[in-house]
Specification:
CATH superfamily of the largest domain: Type I PLP-dependent aspartate aminotransferase-like (Major domain)
CATH class of the largest domain: Alpha Beta
CATH topology of the largest domain: Aspartate Aminotransferase, domain 2
Strand order of the largest sheet: 1-9-8-5
Distance between the termini: 24 Å
Number of strands: 12
Strand content: 5-15%
Number of domains: 2
CATH architecture of the largest domain: 3-Layer(aba) Sandwich
Structural class: alpha/beta
Largest sheet: 4 strands, mixed
Number of helices: 12
Radius of gyration: 20 Å
Length: 363
Amino acid sequence: MVSVPLFASSLDGYQPAIAERLAEVAASGRWILGPEVDAFEREFAAYLGVRHCVGVANGTDALTIALRALGVRPDDEVVLPSFTFYATAEATVNAGATPVFCDVDPETFCVTRETVEAALTPRTRAIVPVDLFGNVAPMDELRDIGLPLLEDAAQAAGARLSGRRAGALGDAATFSFFPSKNLGALGDGGAITTDDDEVAAAARRLRFHGSEDKVVHSEVGYNSRLDALQAAILRLLLPELDGWNEARRQAAHAYEEHGLGGLDLALPRPTEGAEHVFHLYVARHERADDTIAALQREGVSARAYYRTPVHRQPAMRAFASGDLPGTDLAARTTLALPMGTELAEDAIAEVVAACETALAGVA
Protein backbone atom coordinates (compact mmCIF):
# COMPACT_ATOMS: atom_id res chain seq x y z
CA MET A 1 0.00 0.00 0.00
CA VAL A 2 1.32 3.45 -0.95
CA SER A 3 1.63 5.73 2.07
CA VAL A 4 3.36 8.66 0.32
CA PRO A 5 1.62 9.71 -2.93
CA LEU A 6 3.50 11.09 -5.92
CA PHE A 7 1.37 14.26 -6.04
CA ALA A 8 1.23 15.66 -2.51
CA SER A 9 -1.11 18.60 -3.13
CA SER A 10 -4.77 19.23 -2.42
CA LEU A 11 -7.46 21.88 -2.90
CA ASP A 12 -9.55 20.59 0.02
CA GLY A 13 -9.12 23.80 2.00
CA TYR A 14 -10.31 25.88 -0.94
CA GLN A 15 -13.56 24.04 -1.60
CA PRO A 16 -15.91 26.60 0.03
CA ALA A 17 -14.33 29.47 -1.92
CA ILE A 18 -14.35 27.41 -5.12
CA ALA A 19 -18.04 26.59 -4.70
CA GLU A 20 -18.82 30.27 -4.13
CA ARG A 21 -16.93 31.37 -7.25
CA LEU A 22 -18.56 28.70 -9.42
CA ALA A 23 -21.99 29.71 -8.18
CA GLU A 24 -21.29 33.36 -8.99
CA VAL A 25 -20.24 32.56 -12.54
CA ALA A 26 -23.17 30.19 -13.06
CA ALA A 27 -25.57 32.91 -11.94
CA SER A 28 -23.93 35.53 -14.16
CA GLY A 29 -24.96 33.90 -17.43
CA ARG A 30 -21.55 34.86 -18.93
CA TRP A 31 -19.88 31.49 -19.57
CA ILE A 32 -17.96 31.97 -22.84
CA LEU A 33 -15.13 34.54 -22.63
CA GLY A 34 -16.63 37.58 -20.88
CA PRO A 35 -15.50 39.45 -17.75
CA GLU A 36 -13.99 36.50 -15.85
CA VAL A 37 -11.72 35.55 -18.73
CA ASP A 38 -10.82 39.19 -19.37
CA ALA A 39 -9.93 39.66 -15.70
CA PHE A 40 -7.83 36.51 -15.52
CA GLU A 41 -5.96 37.49 -18.67
CA ARG A 42 -5.13 40.89 -17.16
CA GLU A 43 -4.13 39.44 -13.80
CA PHE A 44 -1.96 36.64 -15.19
CA ALA A 45 -0.24 39.03 -17.62
CA ALA A 46 0.50 41.39 -14.72
CA TYR A 47 1.83 38.51 -12.62
CA LEU A 48 4.22 37.49 -15.39
CA GLY A 49 5.16 41.03 -16.35
CA VAL A 50 3.96 40.84 -19.96
CA ARG A 51 1.54 42.94 -21.98
CA HIS A 52 -0.83 40.22 -23.14
CA CYS A 53 -2.39 36.95 -22.04
CA VAL A 54 -4.80 35.07 -24.33
CA GLY A 55 -6.81 32.32 -22.65
CA VAL A 56 -7.46 29.17 -24.70
CA ALA A 57 -9.00 25.75 -24.15
CA ASN A 58 -5.84 23.82 -23.24
CA GLY A 59 -2.08 23.86 -23.39
CA THR A 60 -1.86 21.94 -26.66
CA ASP A 61 -4.08 24.46 -28.44
CA ALA A 62 -1.98 27.21 -26.89
CA LEU A 63 1.12 25.81 -28.60
CA THR A 64 -0.58 25.33 -31.97
CA ILE A 65 -2.12 28.80 -31.98
CA ALA A 66 1.04 30.49 -30.73
CA LEU A 67 3.16 28.88 -33.44
CA ARG A 68 0.80 30.14 -36.11
CA ALA A 69 0.60 33.58 -34.48
CA LEU A 70 4.40 33.75 -34.61
CA GLY A 71 4.30 33.17 -38.36
CA VAL A 72 5.06 29.45 -38.58
CA ARG A 73 3.67 28.08 -41.82
CA PRO A 74 3.49 24.71 -43.61
CA ASP A 75 6.91 23.36 -44.60
CA ASP A 76 8.64 25.45 -41.93
CA GLU A 77 10.76 23.59 -39.40
CA VAL A 78 10.46 24.04 -35.65
CA VAL A 79 13.26 22.91 -33.32
CA LEU A 80 12.10 21.39 -30.05
CA PRO A 81 13.31 18.80 -27.54
CA SER A 82 12.33 15.16 -27.84
CA PHE A 83 12.49 14.76 -24.07
CA THR A 84 9.17 16.38 -23.21
CA PHE A 85 5.47 15.64 -23.22
CA TYR A 86 4.18 14.62 -26.64
CA ALA A 87 1.94 17.69 -27.04
CA THR A 88 4.85 19.99 -27.88
CA ALA A 89 5.55 18.04 -31.07
CA GLU A 90 1.88 17.29 -31.74
CA ALA A 91 1.07 21.01 -31.76
CA THR A 92 3.93 21.65 -34.18
CA VAL A 93 2.51 19.12 -36.63
CA ASN A 94 -1.01 20.49 -36.12
CA ALA A 95 0.32 23.94 -37.06
CA GLY A 96 1.50 22.44 -40.36
CA ALA A 97 5.19 22.56 -39.54
CA THR A 98 7.86 19.88 -39.30
CA PRO A 99 9.28 19.11 -35.85
CA VAL A 100 13.06 18.81 -35.70
CA PHE A 101 14.12 17.18 -32.46
CA CYS A 102 17.13 18.40 -30.53
CA ASP A 103 18.95 16.99 -27.53
CA VAL A 104 18.79 18.07 -23.88
CA ASP A 105 21.23 18.35 -21.01
CA PRO A 106 20.29 15.28 -18.92
CA GLU A 107 21.21 17.12 -15.71
CA THR A 108 18.74 19.99 -16.24
CA PHE A 109 16.37 18.17 -18.64
CA CYS A 110 16.34 21.32 -20.79
CA VAL A 111 17.77 22.21 -24.19
CA THR A 112 21.01 24.16 -24.45
CA ARG A 113 22.23 26.60 -27.06
CA GLU A 114 24.56 23.92 -28.40
CA THR A 115 21.86 21.26 -28.75
CA VAL A 116 19.52 23.71 -30.48
CA GLU A 117 22.19 24.98 -32.88
CA ALA A 118 22.99 21.40 -33.88
CA ALA A 119 19.40 21.01 -35.14
CA LEU A 120 19.09 24.27 -37.11
CA THR A 121 18.65 24.28 -40.88
CA PRO A 122 17.81 27.02 -43.41
CA ARG A 123 14.13 26.02 -42.97
CA THR A 124 14.05 26.60 -39.21
CA ARG A 125 11.34 29.14 -38.43
CA ALA A 126 11.07 28.91 -34.64
CA ILE A 127 12.49 27.27 -31.52
CA VAL A 128 10.33 25.82 -28.73
CA PRO A 129 12.37 25.43 -25.54
CA VAL A 130 10.50 23.53 -22.81
CA ASP A 131 10.68 24.50 -19.13
CA LEU A 132 10.60 20.90 -17.96
CA PHE A 133 9.59 19.63 -14.52
CA GLY A 134 9.58 23.20 -13.14
CA ASN A 135 13.06 24.14 -14.35
CA VAL A 136 13.58 26.94 -16.90
CA ALA A 137 15.34 26.58 -20.25
CA PRO A 138 18.36 28.90 -20.83
CA MET A 139 16.30 31.43 -22.74
CA ASP A 140 18.87 34.24 -22.64
CA GLU A 141 21.43 32.08 -24.46
CA LEU A 142 18.84 30.93 -26.98
CA ARG A 143 17.75 34.46 -27.81
CA ASP A 144 21.18 35.15 -29.27
CA ILE A 145 20.43 32.61 -32.02
CA GLY A 146 18.10 35.18 -33.56
CA LEU A 147 15.02 33.04 -34.27
CA PRO A 148 11.54 33.39 -32.73
CA LEU A 149 11.36 31.67 -29.34
CA LEU A 150 8.13 30.08 -28.14
CA GLU A 151 8.63 29.14 -24.49
CA ASP A 152 6.64 26.07 -23.44
CA ALA A 153 6.14 27.02 -19.79
CA ALA A 154 3.36 24.52 -19.07
CA GLN A 155 5.29 22.94 -16.20
CA ALA A 156 6.88 26.09 -14.79
CA ALA A 157 4.23 28.60 -13.72
CA GLY A 158 5.89 30.97 -11.27
CA ALA A 159 9.48 29.95 -12.03
CA ARG A 160 12.11 32.58 -12.77
CA LEU A 161 15.29 32.96 -14.78
CA SER A 162 17.59 35.83 -13.85
CA GLY A 163 14.69 37.40 -11.97
CA ARG A 164 12.15 37.25 -14.82
CA ARG A 165 9.15 34.94 -14.83
CA ALA A 166 8.86 31.90 -17.03
CA GLY A 167 6.33 32.92 -19.63
CA ALA A 168 7.99 36.30 -20.16
CA LEU A 169 11.29 35.11 -21.61
CA GLY A 170 10.57 34.51 -25.30
CA ASP A 171 8.67 36.10 -28.16
CA ALA A 172 5.66 34.25 -26.78
CA ALA A 173 4.98 31.52 -24.24
CA THR A 174 2.33 28.94 -23.54
CA PHE A 175 0.80 27.51 -20.38
CA SER A 176 -1.37 24.56 -19.48
CA PHE A 177 -3.75 24.75 -16.54
CA PHE A 178 -4.33 20.99 -16.36
CA PRO A 179 -5.27 20.22 -12.74
CA SER A 180 -1.89 18.69 -11.80
CA LYS A 181 0.07 21.80 -12.85
CA ASN A 182 1.51 24.23 -10.28
CA LEU A 183 -1.36 26.55 -11.25
CA GLY A 184 -4.17 24.21 -12.21
CA ALA A 185 -7.85 24.66 -13.00
CA LEU A 186 -10.67 22.18 -12.37
CA GLY A 187 -10.39 20.89 -15.93
CA ASP A 188 -8.59 21.84 -19.10
CA GLY A 189 -7.34 25.34 -19.78
CA GLY A 190 -4.39 27.11 -21.36
CA ALA A 191 -2.93 30.50 -22.20
CA ILE A 192 -0.58 32.29 -24.57
CA THR A 193 1.49 35.17 -23.20
CA THR A 194 3.47 37.76 -25.14
CA ASP A 195 4.63 41.37 -25.27
CA ASP A 196 3.96 41.49 -29.02
CA ASP A 197 0.70 43.25 -29.93
CA GLU A 198 0.48 41.55 -33.33
CA VAL A 199 1.08 38.06 -31.92
CA ALA A 200 -1.59 38.64 -29.28
CA ALA A 201 -4.09 39.89 -31.86
CA ALA A 202 -3.41 36.89 -34.10
CA ALA A 203 -3.83 34.51 -31.16
CA ARG A 204 -7.16 36.07 -30.19
CA ARG A 205 -8.35 35.78 -33.78
CA LEU A 206 -7.20 32.17 -34.17
CA ARG A 207 -8.83 31.01 -30.93
CA PHE A 208 -12.20 32.29 -32.25
CA HIS A 209 -12.53 30.65 -35.67
CA GLY A 210 -10.11 33.11 -37.30
CA SER A 211 -12.47 36.00 -36.61
CA GLU A 212 -12.36 39.26 -34.70
CA ASP A 213 -16.09 39.94 -34.79
CA LYS A 214 -17.83 36.57 -35.46
CA VAL A 215 -18.89 37.98 -38.84
CA VAL A 216 -15.75 38.10 -40.99
CA HIS A 217 -13.45 35.07 -40.82
CA SER A 218 -10.08 36.11 -42.23
CA GLU A 219 -8.37 32.73 -41.76
CA VAL A 220 -9.10 29.18 -40.68
CA GLY A 221 -8.79 29.12 -36.92
CA TYR A 222 -10.00 27.07 -33.97
CA ASN A 223 -12.78 26.91 -31.43
CA SER A 224 -10.47 27.20 -28.43
CA ARG A 225 -11.50 29.51 -25.64
CA LEU A 226 -10.80 29.43 -21.93
CA ASP A 227 -14.23 29.20 -20.34
CA ALA A 228 -15.39 31.52 -17.60
CA LEU A 229 -15.72 28.82 -14.94
CA GLN A 230 -12.07 27.84 -15.27
CA ALA A 231 -10.98 31.48 -15.43
CA ALA A 232 -12.80 32.17 -12.17
CA ILE A 233 -11.01 29.30 -10.44
CA LEU A 234 -7.65 30.41 -11.82
CA ARG A 235 -8.28 33.94 -10.53
CA LEU A 236 -9.00 32.49 -7.10
CA LEU A 237 -5.85 30.36 -7.04
CA LEU A 238 -3.33 32.67 -8.73
CA PRO A 239 -2.57 34.61 -5.50
CA GLU A 240 -1.60 31.29 -3.89
CA LEU A 241 0.91 30.30 -6.57
CA ASP A 242 4.05 31.88 -5.10
CA GLY A 243 3.37 30.35 -1.69
CA TRP A 244 2.75 26.95 -3.23
CA ASN A 245 5.98 27.16 -5.20
CA GLU A 246 7.92 28.12 -2.10
CA ALA A 247 6.50 25.03 -0.36
CA ARG A 248 7.74 22.91 -3.26
CA ARG A 249 11.21 24.45 -3.04
CA GLN A 250 11.29 23.84 0.71
CA ALA A 251 10.35 20.20 0.12
CA ALA A 252 13.18 19.86 -2.41
CA HIS A 253 15.60 21.39 0.08
CA ALA A 254 14.32 19.06 2.81
CA TYR A 255 15.05 16.04 0.63
CA GLU A 256 18.71 17.05 0.60
CA GLU A 257 18.74 17.91 4.30
CA HIS A 258 17.41 14.42 5.07
CA GLY A 259 20.28 12.89 3.13
CA LEU A 260 18.92 12.20 -0.34
CA GLY A 261 21.98 13.85 -1.86
CA GLY A 262 24.22 11.31 -0.17
CA LEU A 263 22.57 8.39 -1.95
CA ASP A 264 23.33 7.00 -5.39
CA LEU A 265 20.92 9.33 -7.18
CA ALA A 266 21.48 12.24 -9.55
CA LEU A 267 19.27 14.97 -8.09
CA PRO A 268 17.53 17.75 -10.06
CA ARG A 269 19.84 20.58 -11.10
CA PRO A 270 18.39 23.98 -12.01
CA THR A 271 19.57 25.85 -15.07
CA GLU A 272 22.12 28.49 -14.08
CA GLY A 273 20.21 31.52 -12.82
CA ALA A 274 16.89 29.66 -12.59
CA GLU A 275 14.50 29.50 -9.65
CA HIS A 276 13.07 25.98 -9.98
CA VAL A 277 9.44 25.40 -8.94
CA PHE A 278 9.54 21.58 -8.86
CA HIS A 279 6.39 20.74 -10.74
CA LEU A 280 7.91 17.29 -10.38
CA TYR A 281 10.92 16.15 -8.39
CA VAL A 282 12.79 14.07 -10.95
CA ALA A 283 16.06 12.36 -10.07
CA ARG A 284 18.03 9.86 -12.16
CA HIS A 285 19.44 6.37 -11.63
CA GLU A 286 20.82 3.80 -14.05
CA ARG A 287 18.45 1.17 -12.67
CA ALA A 288 15.50 3.52 -12.38
CA ASP A 289 12.75 0.99 -13.12
CA ASP A 290 14.06 -1.46 -10.53
CA THR A 291 14.32 1.39 -8.03
CA ILE A 292 10.74 2.50 -8.73
CA ALA A 293 9.48 -1.04 -8.14
CA ALA A 294 11.45 -1.27 -4.89
CA LEU A 295 10.08 2.09 -3.70
CA GLN A 296 6.53 0.93 -4.40
CA ARG A 297 7.19 -2.09 -2.18
CA GLU A 298 8.34 0.32 0.53
CA GLY A 299 5.06 2.25 0.27
CA VAL A 300 6.42 5.24 -1.66
CA SER A 301 4.93 6.24 -5.00
CA ALA A 302 7.50 6.84 -7.74
CA ARG A 303 7.23 7.05 -11.49
CA ALA A 304 9.20 7.15 -14.72
CA TYR A 305 8.71 10.10 -17.07
CA TYR A 306 9.08 10.06 -20.84
CA ARG A 307 10.70 6.60 -21.07
CA THR A 308 9.86 6.72 -24.78
CA PRO A 309 11.01 10.15 -25.98
CA VAL A 310 8.89 11.88 -28.57
CA HIS A 311 11.14 11.17 -31.55
CA ARG A 312 10.68 7.44 -30.88
CA GLN A 313 6.88 7.61 -30.63
CA PRO A 314 5.04 5.80 -33.47
CA ALA A 315 3.26 8.97 -34.62
CA MET A 316 6.58 10.80 -35.03
CA ARG A 317 8.46 8.18 -37.05
CA ALA A 318 8.18 10.27 -40.22
CA PHE A 319 10.31 13.00 -38.66
CA ALA A 320 13.94 11.95 -38.63
CA SER A 321 16.28 12.93 -35.85
CA GLY A 322 19.98 12.59 -35.33
CA ASP A 323 21.77 11.08 -32.37
CA LEU A 324 20.28 12.38 -29.11
CA PRO A 325 22.45 10.89 -26.35
CA GLY A 326 21.32 13.24 -23.59
CA THR A 327 17.69 12.50 -24.41
CA ASP A 328 18.29 8.75 -24.37
CA LEU A 329 20.12 8.97 -21.04
CA ALA A 330 17.39 11.08 -19.45
CA ALA A 331 14.61 8.88 -20.82
CA ARG A 332 16.28 5.72 -19.51
CA THR A 333 17.05 6.99 -16.01
CA THR A 334 14.25 9.32 -14.81
CA LEU A 335 12.80 8.64 -11.39
CA ALA A 336 10.13 11.00 -10.03
CA LEU A 337 9.73 11.09 -6.25
CA PRO A 338 6.79 12.55 -4.28
CA MET A 339 6.44 16.33 -4.52
CA GLY A 340 3.74 18.85 -3.77
CA THR A 341 2.56 21.75 -1.67
CA GLU A 342 1.61 19.52 1.27
CA LEU A 343 4.57 17.14 1.43
CA ALA A 344 5.19 16.93 5.18
CA GLU A 345 8.59 16.62 6.85
CA ASP A 346 7.85 13.11 8.14
CA ALA A 347 6.81 12.02 4.63
CA ILE A 348 10.08 13.38 3.22
CA ALA A 349 12.03 11.42 5.82
CA GLU A 350 10.04 8.31 4.91
CA VAL A 351 10.81 8.78 1.20
CA VAL A 352 14.54 9.21 1.85
CA ALA A 353 14.62 6.11 4.07
CA ALA A 354 12.74 4.15 1.41
CA CYS A 355 15.22 5.34 -1.24
CA GLU A 356 18.13 4.15 0.89
CA THR A 357 16.54 0.71 1.24
CA ALA A 358 15.53 0.53 -2.43
CA LEU A 359 18.93 1.59 -3.74
CA ALA A 360 20.71 -0.91 -1.51
CA GLY A 361 18.53 -3.62 -3.02
CA VAL A 362 19.29 -2.73 -6.65
CA ALA A 363 23.01 -2.06 -6.23
